[in-house]
Amino acid sequence: MEKPAIFKGSKEGIVLVVNPESPFNEVIDFLNKTFEERKLFFSGASVILNPNGRLIAEEELGEMADVFARYGLSFKIMGEEKVYGKEVIASRDLNEEKVALIPHTIRSGQAINFDGSIVVLGDINEGAEINVSKSVYVFGIIRGIVNAGESVVSLGFQPLRMTIGKKQLGKELSDKTYRKPRIAKIENGEVVFKVVGEKQSLRRRE
Amino acid sequence: MGRTIVVTAGKGGVGKTTITANLGASLSKLGRKVVLVDMDIGLRNLDVVMGLENRIVYNIMDIAEGRCKINQALVRDKRQSGLFLLPASQVHTKEDVDIDSIVSIISAIENSFDYVLLDSPAGIEKGFESAVAPSKEGLVVVTPDVSSVRDADRVIGLLENRGILGLSLVVNRYDVDLVNRKKMLNADSIVEILGLDLVGIVPEDKAVIDSTNRGEILVNYYANTIAARAFENVARRIEGENVPFVSLNSQNKGFMKFFRRGK
Fold first, then answer.
1. Contact B193 A108 (CB under 8 A)
2. Could you point out which of A3, A92, A104, B41 has its C-alpha 20 to 30 Å from the C-alpha of B166?
3. Which of B142, B191, B193, B196 should we substitute to test contact with A (largest number of A Cβ atoms within 10 Å)?
4. Does B153 contact A125 at a Cβ distance shorter than 8 Å?
5. Dihedrals φ, ψ of A121, to 5°?
6. A90-178 — its CATH code?
7. Residues B80-115: tens digit of each pLDDT
8. What gap in Å lies between CA B34 and CA A79, rounded to an integer?
9. 3-class secondary-structure state, position B126
């Protein structure tokens, strides 16, 4: 092996194999050069470091982490969990979350049934019915019937009937008319309508 | 090629036929060549509203079933030479209609007119289907009450499902007095619920009933009434002209002024 290190593709991601013979500063130079030249290729990638028998000192690890962080990258040591370099926000497995987009108002007589969450760009009019297992996000006003498993977020509430989880709201909704964005969810077994983004310490209005 | 517009509402009695007749006559006054197609097979009315019932020889079902040519069935209006009626059959029912042949009749007519207005029957059954099938645009008529708004919402959903996205809204039988006393839905909230482009607000006007019973189209017979002016504004907006809404901008003052001037 002549180069101080090489990148290899693998099933787990990009593996950085370090040459155990090369001086450490050459490894750093190699990383700087490679990242600079191939910014796009590495962008957002998570790298696995294979020390290849080399003992890497804590100091050296820190130095490598700085190089990675400078390019918005991070790495793990093979077989370990700790992430070095740029902090990555724990990403959720998006494959497991099903979200459907409905790019229009849902009108009277239309029904949407979906196992997952939906985003509606428009209103949910009176006479329309929504049944989803997770959440409903409405960029408009709810006037119809909404049954959601977890929560309902909307720019306005004027619903006829609403179920969140197992809690059904009927005629008591008549005083739950809102013209501002709210999130309706279950808290302590009751449906609460919270102002979106409201901090807990803020005084409640309405 | 002309514009093919279905005039529809869902609910009955909101003024689909009246609006079809008056919009057609107004467009014709603006120099357009217009044909009004009565799609209410078995319950035709457009001929009576236009006062042409005794001039009908053939109807759309005769064309569909091959008893006559399209030109033989068209009835020219008694006042306007650029306005025609294609009457419905009174002896058939909506179930007798073959939608494909209606579509081919309308697409043949489209070439020789600027506007083809289809007067849809109430309901969302086959009569509605056959009025919608040949149409490329829709004019949804709504009156300021909750049942009409809900039916209109349903109809708009059906039209959108069929790919008719050029939809506009007319609010008919609008009673400013009732709206001001908060006894009637105002036009703003109707537009907000239905989310369509508003092309006209037609005030409730007793002259409509009078002219209908005389077999005359309002815009020709009582051209100076408020409703007739509103119909003409609808026509101009459909033509693409930017006619400001006197009524909407200053709900109280503007509309009342508008009212007094009319009387």
1. no
2. B41
3. B193
4. yes
5. -95, 85
6. 2.160.20.70
7. 999 999 999 999 999 999 999 999 999 999 999 999
8. 79
9. helix
Q: Decide: B170 and B140 in contact? Cβ < 8 Å.
A: yes
Q: Does residue B37 contact residue B60 with C-beta atoms inside 8 Å?
A: yes
Of A159, A136, A134, which is closest to residue A149 (Cα–Cα)? Answer: A134
**Shortest CB distance from B157 goes to which of A107, A126, A143?**
A107
**What are the domain boundaries of chain A?**
5-85, 90-178
Distances (CA, A) of B98 to B90, B101, B129, B159: 16, 6, 11, 19
Angle between helices B16-29 and B226-238 (to 10 degrees): 70
Do A5-85 and A90-178 share a fold? no
CA–CA gap between residue B121 and residue B131 (Å, rounded): 8
Q: Give contacts of B151 with chain A, Cβ < 8 Å.
A: 108
Residue of A nearest to B124 (CA): A109
Q: Does this model's pTM top 0.90?
A: no
Interface-testing mutation among B153, B154, B158, B164, with chain A (most A C-beta atoms within 10 A):
B153
Label residue B244 exposed, middle or buried (CB < 10 Å: 0-12, 13-18, 19+).
exposed
Convert the pLDDT of each residue in B127-165 to its tens digit.
999 999 999 999 999 999 999 999 999 999 999 999 998
Q: How many residues does chain B have?
A: 263
> Residue ranges per domain, chain B?
3-257
**Domain at B3-257, CATH from 3.40.50.10420, 3.20.20.120, 3.40.50.720, 3.40.50.300:** 3.40.50.300
CB B5 within 8 A of CB B51: no
Burial class of residue A188 in the structure, from the number of CB atoms within 10 Å of its CB (0-12 exposed, 13-18 middle, 19+ buried):
exposed
What was the ipTM of the complex prediction? 0.73
Using a 10 angstrom Cβ sphere, with 0-12 exposed, 13-18 middle and 19 or more buried, the burial of residue B165 is exposed
